[in-house]
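re: ur question from yesterday

yeah so i grabbed the chain u mentioned. its 231 aa long if i counted rite. heres the sequnce exactly as i have it in my notes:
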Amino acid sequence: MEEYLPIVIKLFIAYAGLWCLTRLLGKREISQLSPFDFISALVLSELVGNTIYDGQVSFWKLIFALAFWAGLSYLFEKIMELSKPFRRSLEGKPELLIIRGEIDLDALRRNSIAFDEMRMMLRQRDVFSVSEVAYAVYETNGALSILKKHAYDTVQRSDFDLHSYPVHMSCSLVEDGVPQPEGLAAIRHDETWLLQELETLGYADIRSVAFAEWTTEWVLKASPRFIKEDQ
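ran it thru and got these structure tokens back, copy pasting raw so excuse formatting
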């Protein structure tokens, strides 16, 4: 049992350290990782994996390694924020793959992108024909940003001179039958008001409500029924 205790402690230190690194360096989705972020993730995985099962590596060495790598990563992030040329040299720059509806073959070759791969990335953006695209930008994180031709672009309210309304975030009022104090506070109401509104809608027991939220759609519809529920 004693031989497993150091592994448990190292795992706990590694978990806590990686969580702190994530909070320190910011939140990013996998698709948003830059080349530097990807390399950093690989180094961290090797660093933690190699030290956990190595009995000759003490807890303090693991903590030192995590702290040193966190400081180095944070320093590089700050340097790249202050120096655009340095950041561009490390991460590269976006490149146009489609220009005015024409595919740039040289750009595809420079980035080692096959036609099938480009079409797959277009489909991921709900574009199933190259003829719909006016411009396509290959970002430094591997994502593809597109600008459609006007004939295939999404219709906007401004195209019909329709009046625009302010957009507001919805507030969760009930989740799994439990009132949400933060949502009620955001709309300046209390639980008593919530229970009365639910009873008006035919829900005498709040525990029968799986989810309810408050939105501003009732302003547009001129209706006070702004609670949405789903069971």
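noticed a couple things. Residues 59-82 form the longest helix (24 residues). also The first strand starts at residue 95 and ends at 99.
anyway ttyl
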